[in-house]
């Protein structure tokens, strides 16, 4: 029994739970010991280049957390608080909103490699400007530029990994993508912890400039990463796409059943998609609203973007310093050390959790993550309220710190690697970069809201801001439970059938 039993007249009857589609054939390669195969080993190592695409976003949040604890940075920019601090942090997602409009025109027309190169160059220029900033305006503008470049890099890097990874490794490789956000956070956390002792402006200019390093690495090694076979097929270069699959997924064997299956799936699916392809913003909007399946995809993109930004994570990502100050931890050493060690816990948890979506399932991980965050935010609220009543209550202060540490694993369980896997895989090829651009557009809109509103709330009502998120996470849980289908099991192309139903010709057996 397959998904066709759940489809009536091309529409999915039950989108929440569907039976898995038939799995792809077994590879002739030993994919569990992939390092024994030279080409597959090379492919998995080159995946590190697009995996770095989200590094800059993690670096940015942790760096801004750390800089708020660096005396020279505070003094140089007039000790920003409230709305001024909000502008510093909101500039980054504002640039991201600008950047999303460049993703699809470049990545779909010129390829994944060209799209990532463009974003990396823009990010490097922004980091250089940020490092040399002479005033608030220059620093804010540099952050707008970095935000624009980083969203291009991220929106291209995620589908590129999904499209070139071996089918046996696709889920884990794609899930690992967002773990590099945590790696960027660790790097920035320890850099600011190390540089705050420097008795000059270098204490904040060094971390600001080092934000360009991952993008520079990408530019240097980019052209060794194989181009997406799906993009190659979409522009008529089928022979190159087949050669890529044979080399990296079949270790040179054109008769490998996985290579044959993949090539037929890709070419046939893209032929169907290209027959109804539409261009431009209006065409894209029509695509997203044109069918029940695409409308469901768009609703998921919107809600996933909201959940990823509005679950209380902005506190830990950008405003750890004022929260720690509110519970009596005020020194540069205390704050930068907590920031750095917190990011390490975040990364370790993210790496482990990235291996779980294929075992547990995407949907259950989202739901469990929201439950865990709800408990943690309640605990942070209670501890902060108790300390506000009695500033000698060190136990309350330390409990807040403990739950601030626990927030990152709670968030990472569902909204790090799992989210990075789920979003690209629910989108068909021709909607993948456009859908990711839309996802980042919504995500950055809500990030702007959080980054601008939260410092004002922390300044005006302090811990009383937290209960808003306690109630909101319940709403997120209910909507996600009703809306998100499970995608564990089917191949990348076959996931489309969960949303759109199986075309009639698809009952033919692939040889």
From TrEMBL:
Record protein name field: Major facilitator superfamily (MFS) profile domain-containing protein
Keyword annotations from UniProtKB, A to Z: Membrane, Transmembrane, Transmembrane helix, Transport
Residue stretches spanning the membrane: 42-59, 79-102, 136-161, 173-193, 298-320, 340-357, 364-383, 395-415, 436-458, 464-484
Localization of this protein: Membrane
Domain called Major facilitator superfamily (MFS) profile: residue spans: 46-488
Pfam family, one: Sugar_tr
SUPFAM superfamilies in the cross-refs: MFS general substrate transporter
Main location class: membrane
Membrane topology reported for the UniProt record: Multi-pass membrane protein
One cellular component term from this protein's GO annotations in UniProt: membrane
PROSITE patterns in UniProt: MFS
Entry keyword Acyltransferase: no
Gene3D superfamilies assigned: MFS general substrate transporter like domains
Family: Belongs to the major facilitator superfamily. Sugar transporter (TC 2.A.1.1) family.
Gene Ontology MF: a single term: carbohydrate:proton symporter activity
Organism: Periconia digitata
């Amino acid at each position: 029994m397959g998904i066709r039993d759940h489809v009536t007249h091309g529409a999915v009857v039950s989108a929440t739970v569907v039976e898995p589609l038939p799995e792809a054939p077994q590879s002739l390669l030993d994919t569990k010991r992939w390092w024994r195969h030279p080409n597959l080993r090379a492919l998995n190592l080159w995946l590190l280049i697009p995996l770095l695409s989200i590094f800059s976003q993690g670096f940015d949040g942790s760096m801004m957390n750390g800089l708020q604890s660096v005396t020279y940075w505070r003094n140089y920019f007039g000790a920003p608080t409230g709305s001024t601090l909000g502008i510093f942090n909101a500039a980054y997602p504002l640039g991201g909103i600008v950047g999303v409009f460049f993703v699809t025109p470049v990545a779909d027309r010129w390829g994944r490699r060209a799209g990532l190169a463009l974003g990396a160059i823009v990010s490097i220029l922004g980091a250089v400007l940020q490092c040399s900033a002479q005033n608030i305006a220059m620093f804010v503008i540099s952050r707008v530029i970095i935000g624009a470049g980083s969203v291009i890099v991220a929106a291209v890097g995620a589908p590129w990994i999904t499209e070139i990874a071996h089918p046996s490794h696709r889920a884990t490789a794609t899930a690992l993508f967002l773990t590099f956000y945590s790696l960027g956070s660790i790097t920035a956390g320890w850099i600011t912890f190390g540089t705050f002792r420097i008795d000059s402006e270098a204490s904040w200019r060094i971390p600001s400039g080092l934000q360009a390093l991952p993008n520079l690495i990408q530019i240097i090694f980019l052209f060794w990463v194989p181009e997406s076979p799906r993009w190659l097929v979409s522009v008529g270069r089928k022979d190159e796409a087949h050669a890529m699959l044979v080399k990296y997924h079949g270790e040179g064997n054109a008769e490998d059943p996985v290579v044959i299956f993949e090539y037929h799936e890709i070419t046939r699916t893209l032929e169907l998609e290209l027959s109804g392809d539409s261009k431009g913003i209006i065409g894209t909007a029509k695509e997203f609203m044109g069918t029940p399946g695409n409308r469901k995809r768009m609703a998921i993109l919107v809600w996933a973007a909201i959940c990823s930004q509005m679950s209380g994570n902005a506190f830990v990502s950008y405003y750890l310093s004022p929260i720690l100050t509110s519970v009596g931890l005020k020194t540069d050493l205390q704050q930068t050390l907590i920031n750095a060690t917190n990011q390490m816990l975040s990364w370790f948890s993210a790496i482990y959790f990235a291996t779980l979506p294929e075992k547990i399932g995407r949907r259950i991980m989202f739901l469990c993550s929201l439950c865990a965050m709800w408990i943690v935010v309640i605990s942070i609220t209670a501890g902060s309220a108790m300390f506000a009543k009695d500033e000698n209550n060190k136990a309350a202060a330390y409990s807040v710190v403990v739950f601030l540490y626990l927030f990152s694993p709670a968030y990472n369980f569902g909204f790090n690697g799992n989210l990075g896997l789920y979003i690209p895989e629910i989108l068909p090829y021709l909607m993948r970069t456009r859908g990711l651009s839309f996802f980042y557009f919504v995500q950055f809109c809500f990030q702007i809201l959080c980054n601008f509103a939260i410092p004002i709330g922390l300044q005006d009502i302090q811990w009383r801001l937290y209960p808003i998120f306690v109630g909101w996470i319940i709403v997120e849980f209910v909507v996600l439970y009703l809306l998100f289908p499970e995608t564990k099991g089917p191949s990348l192309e076959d996931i489309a059938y969960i949303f759109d139903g199986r075309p009639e010709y698809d009952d033919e057996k692939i040889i």
